[in-house]
Description:
This protein is an alpha+beta fold. It folds into 2 domains: 9-226, Sandwich (Jelly Rolls), CATH 2.60.120; 231-280. Helix content is 29%, strand content 23%. It contains 6 helices and 13 strands. The strands form 2 sheets. Strands 1-2-11-8-13-6-5-3-4 form a 9-stranded antiparallel beta sheet. Strands 7-12-9-10 form a 4-stranded antiparallel beta sheet, with no helix packed on it. Residues 298-303 have low confidence and may be disordered.
Amino acid sequence: MDATAAPLLTLDWTRFQPRRVQAVRHRLHRHPLLQLDELLALARRLEAAGQLRRIGADAEAGTPFIATAADVGALQRIGAEKGWAVLRYVQIDPTYRGLVDTVLDSIQSHVERVDPGMHYRAGFIFISARHTVTPFHMDVENNFILQMRGHKTLYVWEPDDAVAVSEEARDRFHHHRDLIRWREELRDRAHVFELHAGEGAYMPATSPHMVETGDDLSVTMSFTYLTDATRHDAWLHDLHYLMRRAGLHPSSVGRHPALDALGWRAVAALLGVRRIAQRAAGRPVEPTHPPYAAPGPNEGGRA
Ligand SMILES: [Fe+2]
């Protein structure tokens, strides 16, 4: 796409807050790599890499989020059947890594003015039948979710909405997701986005969300990343999870910045010791800020 033309992603950057949900617009829905024939070709490559997954036709808002391995045949039947498929970690494909970088490069300076340290970039593409539900869940990454085709109703709750997901559930999130529970009355407190091609939303890390598709085949792409702050918050929740297991009652992450800073210094010191021990043992030491997400096992929850 022409870098001198209008921005790929448009939002009011003067209002952008990394921990607040916000509407966005975009012009990626006409991009050749996001048309169905190119996506089927990508799906064949990702199937071989084990990164093509699907969720069943009978999923509802409260269904546990479990995506299972899919094949391109199943993807081609979407439209005739219900359910959806996700092309995960598309940045492992060199062509689509270029697309992920083009989009995230175009917004990086805006994001990093208030949320420095963009890393762990990834892209996920969702191809969904009509009248399909993505169950209530949350993810670890900041997410620009952009509608390319069809219509979706996206329900998003703020990342600090303790009614939607309790602080204890957030502390347990990296270990257990049993306390993340759907209740029908949560709809009333959600941001509701009626997304058509060219529209989207910014969802901060750990914003609970749930999606329902409209009357047509839907294609959506998420551009995701971590920052220094998302990494700190994740470790603080982990620390609080351990404190709860020890019978303590930690305050909410973000409520007391001075306490959070103390907690983070303790975590950083432990991580430093671990890295020194790994080096001393001759074991590989992972970078703290890898530029791209590493595909993992079926962790689910990405939509
Ligand atoms: Fe998600």
